[in-house]
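Dear colleague,

Thank you for sharing your sequence with our group. We've completed the structure prediction you requested, and as agreed, I am returning the results in plain text so they can be pasted directly into your records. Please verify that the sequence below matches your submission; if there's any discrepancy, let me know and we will rerun it promptly.
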Amino acid sequence: MLDSKFTQQQMVVNKFADPSIDYNMTVRDYIVRAFASAPITITLPAIAASAGRTYSISAGLASDVNTVTITNRSDSDSWSDIVFTSTGSHTLFYSDGLKWHNISNIIVLTGNITGTEDEAGVINTTITDKAVIYAKIQDVAIDSILGQTGIAGTVIEIPCTAAGRAILDDVDNVAQRVTLGLVIGTDVEAYDATLESLAGLGTAADKFAYTTGIDTWIEGAITAAGRAILDDIDNTAQRVTLGLVIGTNVQAYDATLASLADLGTVADVMTYTTGIDTWAETAITTAGRALLDDADNVAQLATLGLTATAAEINNVADVSTRMQSLIASGAITPGIQSVELDNITTVIAATIADASTHQGLFIVKDTSASGTLAHTLTLTIGTFDGTATIATFNAPNDAITVYFDSVGNGTVLALTGTAALT
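Please find the predicted structure tokens below.
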């Protein structure tokens, strides 16, 4: 029968496969070498169809990430997947028609070790008494122990002093610390979360440690100049280090300067005092600044676009004989320079026939005690500002100040309250 099976085996044509993706083996894939550039799975052929056959599977390329997993078709008794995680891994499988057998691990019995196989195929080994003792230990050098290298089955001698053996025979770590003469908190530092955090720092050159939370430390950069500040005994020494003399290099404290320093200094504002060493801000426009930088009142009148002299303006400003008060709608008398509109129940509609008859400063004010009546002043000839001919006063104390030239063209100097031009 054995000869017959041998003859059949000789007639089978071996097939070689080198898959790099998941692969289902056929009964003729006797040699498979997998190349895993990503995790792949190799599935053995059907167990019954492979009875009496042996298959070799190896990893031409494999790693912890790109693994080769060998599995079956859920038709083998007592099956567990095998995973290759390194290049060169290899195994042999034999099918008895019911179960896959991993036959890669061959037992070799030599020397004082004997073995017998029972009817179930189990190998029973026997080691001759004292064979290992006399073969491996008898000739070991003094102060040595036996150990094993990374190569399986290779036994080497490892130096082991009396001090080393004193550690090895201790019952626990407490006894080992006693042997080593180490008392936690006396000979060695006890564990501390702060020290653990500090130990994790890189401690490169020019760094300092600071906390970011409880028991949490990180590093920051510190230069030689920074360290020169830190080692000064007080702020006087620190000023010397910085080369700062108060009153020479930096301004001495002053209450006025401190008040000014607190101001917002936004665009188009100016400062003024509200008390001793107390400053505030107020708005100032481009037009306002144009007046402030004039050398005298003549230049200021020119800035305002006024051709009259100061004396002429003062003369016009005397409105004691040039004021007219209206309590009802009506016309403004020529030559009047100041008008008061005074009615809390009836709208006053005042008119000026020709603005040129009111040349100079002209002021209109709503002097009503209360109310929101929209009193008006309408120019028949002339304008307030080149286009507007109607001034509306919506509330008490609304006012307009305008300068009319000789032809009735006005220049508005001020609109007070809710006064408006249309």
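Summary note from our side: The domain at 2-102 is CATH 2.60.120 (Jelly Rolls).

Kind regards,
the structure core
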